[in-house]
Amino acid sequence: MTVVPNMPKAWRIETKPHKFCPGCGHGLVLKALGEAIDELGVQERVVFGCDIGCSLLSWDFFNADTVQTHHGRTTPVMTGIKRARPDRICIAYMGDGGGYAIGAQHLVNAATRNEKITVILANNCNYAMTGGQMAPTTLPEMKTETTPYGRDVEETGYPTQGPEMVAAITGETAYSARGTVANLRQLKNYLKKALQNQIEERGFSFVEALSACPTNWSTNAKDTWHFLEETMPKYFKIGEVKVPVKEAKESNTSQGNHTKQ
Amino acid sequence: MSMPAVELEAKTQRKQAKPIEGVKKVFMTGNESVAWAALAAGAEIMYGYPITPQNEIMHYWTRLAPRYGKQFLQTEDEISAGFTTCGGVLAGKRAFTATAGPGNILMQESMSMAEMLRLPTVVIVQQRGGPSTATVIYSQQETTLTCFGGNGEGLRIVYSSSSHQDLFDYTIKAFNTAWKYRFPTFVLGDGYQAKMRESLHIYDPAAKGIKMEKTVPFVGQEGMPGVDRAPAHLRNTFNTEEELLEVITGYVAEYQKIAPEIIEYEVIETADAEIVLVAHGIVARAAWAAVRALRNKGVRAGFFRPITLRPFPAEQLRKAARTAKKLLVAESAQGQLLKLVQEALYGETVPIATYLMPGQGITAEELSDYVMELRSNKTNREGGSR
Questions:
Q1: What is the distance between the alpha carbons of residues A199 and B115, in angstroms, rounded to a whole number?
Q2: Where are the alpha helices (DSSP H) in B149-228?
Q3: How far is A154 from chain B (nearest CA, A)?
Q4: CATH number for A75
Q5: Where are the domains of chain B?
Q6: Which of A27, A202, B109, B238 is most exposed by smallest CB count within 10 Å?
Q7: What are B202-218's pLDDT values in tens digits?
Q8: DSSP secondary structure, A101-170, as one string
Q9: Which residues face B186 on adjacent strands?
């Protein structure tokens, strides 16, 4: 007897097992997203866009209309679709290079315009698809192919603080948070809130998910988990950075502070 | 979601209102005529970023569009304008953008994706000087870029307009060609056409018997994906050389098959011509006027104008060239049309003289004088070049 593993309903079974490396965090982010879509009952309305880099491997991941775009350009493609079809739930999925480097201007301006789309960004501290180069999120002293002696902050600065940046420039009705694949229940909750913000046509929503890349980190299971759970959160604070004003009043949390759940 | 009935009715009325009733004679700039043409063609959304000399397309669109329930988004750059236009098309809308010069360069990335995903995008290009920032005024230096920009095979359709009437006619046609054949489509104008005023007829396409092609969404169709229908999974990346080769070979075959239906050109008095002037865009008007003037002087001059630069009317040009003693290619670029002509005429022996003025306008007088000069200088076996 074949036992079919328990998968989110929004997943496309025919394309599983998925194409990501063993131990990769993308599958977990997309699991949390699949469950969020299921629980909100919006699968039929979802248009999913994926970027270049490892995220492109999700081009046939969901039973949802999907467009695989160019590096950094998923945000404008989803913006274009949303403007033309406001009844769709448009999700832009990308990595840290796509969102914070080559597509940074799109993220910044979509956030500023408070576009009613949801951007989900997997942060694994490196450009993984191209073989592990320094990303905007590479930690100080961290070794990558282009920082073989460790990232020198004097030369290349500090890791980009994405959700904080988005929160600082976006509208009062936007949502911005950072979750982690080390806490899927919390990540799913953030993703649901982000999607809810779009469903209710309030404004922009952004979720960064700390993700693992054992292939390029060259780590075993134990070290991967340690880096994800202990090292990364020292630079990237987990929590909600901005919740829409209406919701903030209800839950009595102040903006700009990380609120752990 | 809950819109008051009165407001909803007003919105529906706006959407149904015809921007132009019948045919109207007007006197306006080329940019204005593009905005009217897009409205008349039923374009639903424009995405744009400011760059001279195309700005007034956006200015007129932003003033006119809300009256007819149409939309506009000003993006953060031309990269975004191109990709949001792809998004609008993916959503099943007649979406378009307009650009020039450095903006045209930035749009090549998105148009390369449009080629691969077969997206019927429409882009109006009002050429300015190049390379780099150069001038905001005029040139024909975006010919190669518009025809062959991107890391691919130039699987796109490019109409070169030479008047305000052309800008209006071919903007409407661009939407139909794009949606019928699903190749990204461009209308290549220039700063002179953009900024000058002249007389033209604007019209409701229906009044001329033009039927607009139906648009179909690529994503977001009705029904539960995976249950009622297969999900649309659109990708522009492939795993193997063989996979890519198969896709591109199919696209190229289709492009070649439809090319004869798309190709447009103008040819005048080439049968007995000792010299045929070859030009596109606004320079073709100078060439046409030069041919008239030369004929009046008894010089047997002919005229050939490719209207589609991609696909190029190669066979038609060969036919015209076979009876001519000489060709004169004139353009406001250093040989961008010339390359297309030479490729089309490979193997023919007709000498080709050139009149190349990168970034500068060309008058009829200059061209007719140059033809007279060429005739008096019979020793120039190469055919003469400037």
A1: 32
A2: 164-181, 191-195
A3: 30
A4: 3.40.50.970
A5: 16-208, 265-376
A6: B238
A7: 999 999 999 999 999 99
A8: IITHHHHHHHHHTT-S-EEEEEE-SEETTTTSEE-TTPPTT--BTTBTT---HHHH-PPP-HHHHHHHHS
A9: B123, B158
Residue A254: the pLDDT is 45
Nearest CA in chain A to B73: A83
Is the ipTM, as predicted for this complex, more than 0.90? yes
pLDDT means per 10 residues, chain A with 261 residues, are 86 96 98 98 98 97 98 98 98 98 98 98 98 98 97 97 98 98 98 98 98 98 98 98 81 51 46
CATH fold match for the domains B16-208 and B265-376: yes
Selected for mutation to probe chain A from B15, B73, B93, B243 (highest A CB count within 10 Å) is B73
Choose among A65, A68, A106: nearest Cβ to B237. A68
Residue B44, classified by CB atoms within 10 Å of its CB into exposed (0-12), middle (13-18) or buried (19+), is buried
Which B residues, 97 through 156, put their C-beta within 8 Å of a C-beta on chain A?
109-110, 113, 117
Q: What is the DSSP-derived secondary structure letter of residue B41?
A: T
**In the predicted model, is pLDDT for residue B16 greater than 80?**
no
Whether B346 has a pLDDT exceeding 90, the answer reads yes
What confidence score (pLDDT) does residue B187 get? 98
What's the pLDDT tens digit per position in B262-295?
Answer: 999 999 998 999 999 999 999 999 999 999 999 9
Query: Distance (Å) from the C-alpha of residue A94 to the closest C-alpha of chain B?
Result: 15
Residue B82 C-alpha, separation from nearest chain A C-alpha, in angstroms: 9
In a domain, A24, yes or no: yes
Q: Are A74 and A93 in contact (CB under 8 A)?
A: yes
Kind plus residue range of the DSSP H or E element containing A31 = helix A26-40
| Residue A99 lies inside a defined structural domain of this protein | yes
Q: Where are the alpha helices (DSSP H) in B135-197?
A: 143-148, 164-181, 191-195
| pLDDT recorded at residue A259 | 52
Which residues, listed in sequence order, are joined to residue A205 by a DSSP beta bridge?
Answer: A118, A175
Q: Is B358 exposed, middle or buried (0-12, 13-18, 19+ CB in 10 A)?
A: middle
Q: What number is the average pLDDT over the span B155-176?
A: 98
In a domain, A6, yes or no: no
Task: Taking each helix axis as running N to C, give the angle between helix B364-376 and helix B281-296, from 0 to 180 degrees, rounded to the nearest 10.
Answer: 60
CB contact under 8 A, A79 and B80: yes
Closest CA to B126 of B195, B202, B227: B195
In a domain, A4, yes or no: no
β pairing state of B197-203 and B23-29: antiparallel
Residue in A43, A60, A109 closest to B233 by CB = A60
Q: What is the pLDDT of residue B383?
A: 57
Count of structural domains, chain A: 1
Fold of B16-208: Rossmann fold (3.40.50)
- CATH class (in words) of the domain with range B265-376: alpha beta
Residue B381 has pLDDT above 90, yes or no: no
Residue (of A37, A38, A59, A42) closest to A50 by Cα position? A59
Q: Whose CA is closest to A206, among A75, A38, A54?
A: A75
How far the first Cα of chain B sits from its last, in Å, is 64
Percentage of chain B surpassing pLDDT 90? Answer: 92
- B39 pLDDT more than 90: yes
| pLDDT level of residue B308 (50, 70, 90 thresholds) | very high
Q: Is A44 on the interface with B (CB under 8 A)?
A: yes
